[in-house]
Amino acid sequence: MAMIIDGKKISQQIKEELKEKVALQKAKGKTGALAVVQVGADPASSVYVRNKKNACAFIGIESLAYELPEETSEEELLSLIAELNGKEKVKGILVQLPLPAHINEDKVIQAISPEKDVDGFHPQSVGAMVIGEKGFLSCTPAGIIQLLKRSDIEICGKNCVIIGRSNIVGKPMALLMLRENATVTITHSKTQNLAEVCKQADILVVAMGKPQFIGAEYVKEGAVVIDVGIHRDADNKLCGDVKYGEVEPIASAITPVPGGVGPMTIAMLMNNCVQSIEEG
Ligand code: NAP
Asked: Largest CB tally within 10 Å, which of 51, 99, 124, 193?
């Protein structure tokens, strides 16, 4: 029986801590707002945006909503970002991804001032993370580190295998694990003998975007399994990249979907906003 890593509970603890920090900041006259920009009305994005606004309200920071129509041009979006970059009150800018196909996401991410890049996606934030300098950390991987630490799971010296090398999860996850002194292996769709490589992992982070792909044959007895995937199964129920029922009995600890990694991403976004307000 694995320990179930309760992301809902841990994220709530983090938000409670941030709420106290925000109150202290306010007492010192330090305030700021998060600008949340959504282009189009993709239902999944709308849920994420709503959750982010609710988290801001909970910890006590203002959120400014910019809901733009699907047909917004790249130029219009870039001009809004330039305006938000210049607004003193705005301490964080979040552009909900994915953007409609006619808008270049990289261009938009790079237009956000690194001082307000609370998603941690700007190349300057990524570069700072690589060399261990101060900057905003990518929220999902930073949330996974918190999940492990707050569950008293040792990272230092452990073999960590990551499935996936995306810019938002796999790559930053590898760097943060390395920072925590894990021995890190990154795998991807061209990796040979994936199951064999994964079986070496003390900590297996699965971010491949393939519903219920990873079964018992990929997991060493007693490994810690972190499931980043989010999907809907045939019954429209949320599920991850891991076959939970099969893996849970052999893992020592595992994140459920929902209620594992997902809630941590928003908690770490709030953490970045509070950090930005602090740095003023
Ligand atoms: P992504 O950009 O699609 O990247 C998937 C990665 O998995 C790629 O590097 C790909 O390899 C690798 N991969 C795909 N099939 C594979 C296979 N058969 N064997 C080995 N590697 C394989 O996805 P992402 O943005 O990183 O997201 C991954 C999952 O996490 C998705 O389900 C997403 O919805 C979820 N997610 C959750 C949160 C959260 O807050 N919980 C946040 C972000 C993402 P190649 O590079 O070779 O193509």
From this structure: 99
